[in-house]
Amino acid sequence: MANVDTVKKVRDFVTPFEEFGYEVSNGWIPICEKVEEKIEEYNKSHSDAPIEIFQIKSKFGELRVYLMDATTGDDIHTPEELKPFIEEVEKEARETCEWCGSKEDVHTSSYRGWIRTLCDPCNDELRSR
Question: What does the alpha-carbon distance between residue 8 and residue 42 come to, in Å, rounded to a whole number?
Fold first, then answer.
């Protein structure tokens, strides 16, 4: 993650990613790390138009990845060559427990206004609180 003070000198804002990092629970962190590695790899071959993660978070029980132009800070659509990868990691997150990373008995459900993707044991733990 970038140093917030340094970033403020380069542009007028700090992204949610720079401020908060991954806005997900522990079970999805390995998936988010894959996204960050893929963006770094993409930028090596696209140094003329580098991109950055603007925000990566859980929303409505799904992984959301928002990108921006690294030079201007403008929002961008996912580059065509990255779309299959982003779709793949979003699918992986839908099949992975947000809390523990399990891939067994995972489903998305709502509880007390929050939609989460959890395995049965983590869902039971949530509902017992």
Answer: 24
